[in-house]
Amino acid sequence: MFRKEFAEVISKTGMVPIKDLRPLMLDKDPNTVSEFGLLQFDFFDDVKFAKQLAENYNLTFIDLSKAKIKERILKLSKKSDVLKYRMLPIQKSSSAVSLAIFDPSVVNLRAELQSVFQSPVEFILTNLSAWEKIYSRVTESIDELLSTIKEVLPDQGKDNETVREEDIGSEMITFVNRILAEAFIKKASDIHIEPYEKIFRIRFRIDGKLVEMAEPQKKLMLPMISRLKIMAQMDIAERRKPQDGRIKLQIGGAPIDYRVSSLPTLFGEKIVLRLLDSSNLQLDMTKLGFEAKQLAVFKEGIYQPFGMCLVTGPTGSGKTTTLYSAIADLNKVATNISTAEDPVEFNLQGINQVNVRRDIGLTFASALKSFLRQDPDIIMVGEIRDLEVGEIAVEAALTGHLVLSTLHTNDAPSTVTRLINMGIEPFLVVGALNVIVAQRLCRRICVECKVEHKVGVEELVACGIAPQSASKIKVYKGEGCDYCNNTGYKGRVAIYEVMGMTPGLKDLILRNSSSDDIKKQAIKDGMKTLRMSALTKVAQGLTTLDEAVMNSGSDKF
Predict the structure, then answer these.
(1) What is the per-residue pLDDT for 17?
(2) Which stretches of 196-346 are DSSP H helices?
């Protein structure tokens, strides 16, 4: 039933007169309105309500939506106890455990709760909607399902060195599926399953950073790895050498691929799964994060009838997305496009995509040679790794084909010196190159907890911002909230360095100049460096100064 005290508190906040609540107060049906039911009314502001309630009961109010609560603190309480006592542990000190409640009557259960936690407890009142969000973290965590598996899965005992397909129980199958789905929901790019001497742990790479998700019991390791290897069509009996496989699932109607790699380590096989979500693939170049001038230079390079366009950066910097967006833009009925990839990450309609397989001799070099006999207009090769591939790519670019590829270099200017150091003649590099794009991914500030962050002018200038602009720039950061898992970041934003081939650059390359000299000339010709691009994203409020500095090299020579 609706408690009279609720009506009095609501009336005090000014949300609605008490006379309008009398029909609810007279209704004795226990299902009519409860604390949870109040949320259905348009007039109800649960933050105002909780603050007034806290004042009435002489309790401290906390806004849980802005609080940073560690997972290990939440795990101090079982789900059953959370439901029974309607409380959440949010902090633990040497003197007491702090419990967040939305109903002051829970204070009467102090003695019982002190017995549950084996510690003194203190109560902090919060609003119901924020409490529910934190509660969902408890109910939806991987460890909640894991606790069930621990109880049901039989101990493998002495025979746990051999796990057959028929030995894998339905609980383990459910658990593995839950981890794969959880990674998809949290937008993780990779899942790491790592064995150690006494434990094994599960980590997700979210927005470029590894986050620990669980530390299951060691006895669960073999059944879990065997299940993943079966799904990936790998040999579960072979644990002495690395293997590769692929898992295809549908989650919420979306087709998801997981690229699976196993590696024998000291205490067992480590499994890493790379998530490939085609529904999340951005093929519109205008939405990748290029500035207008950078995009114009890049498009000028890829729209040439022949030549070479290179995208550089470390693994996981978004190079494949940039290349795929270029290919998608160039994909026309009148154009024959072939790609050699290791492996093919996404299927693109109308493109002839080839998976490199070194075990049968199908390498980047052999694929390129075959492409040249297939009447190509545009060729994409996953990576220029050696002189042989580099020479074939340059030859193709000089003989009327457009070639797109990637290289692992720190910035655009050093790509030129890398090609020359490989053994490709400078005059061939000058003749072949159209444009080079270097890129990185910075973590994006969470929009839900974004606040202004005061940074001194001296620090901004030291990072590369012009003195006359430093005093005018507003810098932001994320405070951390439920939406971003208290990291302050949600998603990523790309920064670019786009270097088109100008007469000045061609002259320097022919003279075999250093990458520093090439960089100076490129800046003089209008190129924005990675650091400049990153600082622009800071000024736009998209990323933090720390992220910008960490992901871009200094422009000092």
Answers:
(1) 57
(2) 221-231, 292-302, 319-330
